[in-house]
Specification:
Two copies of one chain form a homodimer. Chain A has 440 residues and is of the alpha/beta class. The first copy, chain A, has 16 helices and 17 strands. Chain A folds into three domains: 124 residues, NAD(P)-binding Rossmann-like Domain (Rossmann fold), CATH 3.40.50.720; 162 residues, Dihydrodipicolinate Reductase, domain 2 (2-Layer Sandwich); 90 residues, ACT domain (Alpha-Beta Plaits). In chain A, the strands form two sheets. In chain A, strands 7, 8, 9, 10, 11, 12, 13, 14, 15, 16 and 17 form an eleven-stranded mixed β-sheet that branches. In chain A, strands 3-2-1-4-5-6 form a six-stranded parallel β-sheet, sandwiched between helices. Chain A starts with a strand and ends with a strand. Chains A, B: One of its GO terms (molecular function) is homoserine dehydrogenase activity. Chains A, B: It comes from Rhodoferax aquaticus. Chains A, B: Its EC number is 1.1.1.3.
């Protein structure tokens, strides 16, 4: 049988990875798929750069639409990124009856509903394993591996840049700005790192996982998003002393009132496996009611790891492109007519525990006033760490750090308590609040 | 559409888990599968015990063959275990045109070739996610999630009983026999724990992973199998001092000369994620040439975790039972006509590094003689730990422990060197040799 014909729209890091791995492992992949998979067209504005890689093994075009227009192409892979052009091309490819593979988490997190509906109407598949956690087969595990379960929650380190920065801050006791520059120098962070360090990239990925875990539409606009730019190395150190690590987590959770969907720095017990995921690696913890806690770990980015996920999708489509809809896994794991309208909870209703750091005057009664406010609000305290004044501010200091770990309470209640504590004259700086999850 | 009809042959721990999870999550599972999945028959010799669980929700029979004989049953789940009866029933079910799901690793590791051939000839599926690592979707990840890769190696903690025992030995400094009794009391080890503690269960699972990773037939009879019964807590302690943990690993590796297939205790660096998998949990590390190192973690046994894996297979079959062979994932990941005959390497040809512990006379020249033998054999030394005599044998002792970590060498060469060292008059006890893997 003729190999299935693939066109790559966009030929940068990931495209090159897909092309090279398909070339190198073509025999092995065909032994699995039962049919060859061949990249016969690639598009890149700078055609000369693409030509250098592919030589005479594929046709290089400047205009991605030439791929869509080619009736011999069975599957197009969208690797252009961003929203506008990528969205147009994906919808045009679907309209032309092509199956689509994409690594574009931003596109699907924002426009997924429209794109999946168009694909279903046309009877084509849109696969996106590469959009979340790079080479880790987390989409497949959630959509197919854990189908028996009511998923309870997911918590993931799904952005390598920020995990690299946090690992370095902890290892070397350096501040965020210093480590960011180092990460940029090493190529772990982009020149404009905003999407990574502000948590937006993680929120895109989390949105996709939340949809397939709970059978709800993609709702990126409802996500609560905080990055790591305000994290201080002193909090990383105090967390360590209390037996915790700070990680940027994407968390989505099913509660009786609705679905939590939030990205923020988070204390997690140092003994949890995910707390020990270092550097640019990714890991996702999934808790299901039958299976319990499972974890998936690997490289979350890079040419060949992401290429590995794209190719896994190509193999799936090669198997199933002649199948009917009932034989295919639904785009968002649940049948389109069986989606749920469970709302995403506003952040004020999210229940979690907290780490608080207060810079206070080192005088009698401060602790009593602070804990009094928490008690009044019905927030119970798990642990208190009060530093000696001179440990923090040096000999003769009259200030100190007061660290409090709380038990679970609703975020709105904590907001109110923090506002009250902040108003105390003995609280000298803006209070640091970091959420905490046990992930048990 | 009428729900797909399932019959459970065997209704113990796992069968009950499958039944209960399917009952509890039936709405959620139908939303995913697009069709209901219903257990309409279960078989158990003691029908009264089964009847207690299922009530009037399914027909209980004493004879599993009544399930196979029922034309309404689409899928049979074999949960009887063992070889003889299970094999007969699985082959009869296939002959009757039933799809089969099984958690029986022993059966497939030994008779898989025959069973998969019969299934292919009949056009039915035999699914076995539950046979390896309980609820972790490792079979799906290997067969479908990593199809782009030439898998290089797999290393797994795939037996919860032995991992629980090793965790306890390390935590509490206790000896194997003591912890085994405790594990039996707590239900983590069976009354006859031989299959677990001798590594046979792990070797069954490893055999299946090796086949689907490398596209070779199941070859349980070629596996090298060592359990944990001879492990001493003193080695766990020394390993710790050198920065390593000891785990019972199943390792399968692709080398230019052939495939390694081996289960044995193994030192691994303490900083690796898998070294921190404690208690009865399972984890599998998979290294592929494109994706790099990935890890999959979760509960490797138990009623509902294993039930979760069985049900994932039921959902897959529900989707694909009307598909043709090309649309289904091949049983062993590779197309039956594209299997490889790469041989399994004899243990003597396996190359790895080693931990050696020698009980020696505390006198001058011992270290020189021992290291001289290794040097002569061309085995280079990575680290040496020599204890003070009285640390080991108490005040006035004339004996001590000599610990050596080596670099990589072929097992046959190490066997010869150990025989020579053992013959030295200053080597007072049988030399302990534990293999070591960096898993980088």
């Amino acid at each position: 049988m003729k190999p299935i014909q693939v066109g790559l729209m966009g030929f940068g890091t990931v495209g090159t990875g897909v092309f090279n791995v398909l070339q190198r492992n073509q025999a092995e992949i065909k032994r699995r798929a039962g049919r060859g998979i061949e990249v016969s067209m690639v598009s890149r504005r700078n055609t000369a750069l693409a030509q250098e890689v592919v030589g005479d093994r594929a046709t290089v075009v400047a205009d991605a639409r030439a791929i869509i227009a080619n009736p011999d192409i069975d599957i197009v892979v969208e690797l252009i990124g961003g929203y506008d052009l990528a969205k147009e091309l994906v919808l045009e490819a679907i309209a032309a009856g092509k199956h689509v593979v994409t690594a574009n988490k931003a596109l699907l997190a924002v426009h997924g509903t429209e794109i999946f509906a168009a694909a279903s109407a046309k009877g084509v598949m849109v696969a996106f394993e590469a959009a979340v956690a790079g080479g880790i087969p987390i989409i497949k595990s959630l959509r197919e591996g854990l189908t028996a379960n009511r998923i309870q929650w997911i918590a993931g380190i799904i952005n390598g840049t920020t995990n690299f920065i946090l690992s370095e801050m902890r290892d070397k006791g350096l501040d965020f700005e210093v480590v960011l520059k180092e990460a940029q120098r090493l190529g772990y962070a982009e020149a404009d790192p905003t999407f990574d360090i502000e948590g937006v990239d993680a929120a895109h990925k989390l949105t996709l996982m939340s949809a397939i875990a709970f059978g709800v539409p993609v709702q990126f606009d409802k996500a609560h998003i905080e990055g790591i730019t305000k994290l201080s190395s002193v909090d990383i150190k105090y967390a360590e002393q209390l037996g915790y690590r700070i990680k940027l987590l994407g968390i989505t959770k099913r509660t009786p009132k609705g679905i939590e969907l939030r990205v923020h720095p988070c204390l997690i017990p140092a003994k949890r496996l995910i707390a020990n995921v270092e550097g640019a690696m990714n890991a996702v913890v999934v808790n299901g009611d039958a299976v319990g806690t499972t974890l998936y770990y690997g490289k979350g980015a890079g040419s060949e790891p992401t290429g590995s996920a794209v190719i896994a999708d190509l193999v799936d489509i090669t198997r199933l492109h002649t199948a009917d809809a009932a034989q295919r896994v639904p785009h968002l794991a649940f049948q389109p007519d069986a989606m749920s309208d469970t709302p995403v909870l506003p952040m004020g209703d999210v229940v979690t525990s907290y780490y608080l750091r207060l810079r206070v005057a080192d005088e009698a009664g401060v602790l009593a006033r602070v804990t009094g406010i928490l008690a009044e609000a019905g927030i119970s305290i798990d642990a208190v760490l009060q530093r000696e004044a001179d440990e923090v501010g040096g000999e003769g200091s009259t200030q100190t750090d007061l660290i409090i770990l709380t038990h679970d309470c609703a975020e709105a209640k904590m907001d109110a308590a923090i506002a009250q504590m902040q108003a105390l004259p003995t609280v000298l700086q803006s209070i640091t609040r970091i959420r905490k999850e046990e992930l048990a």
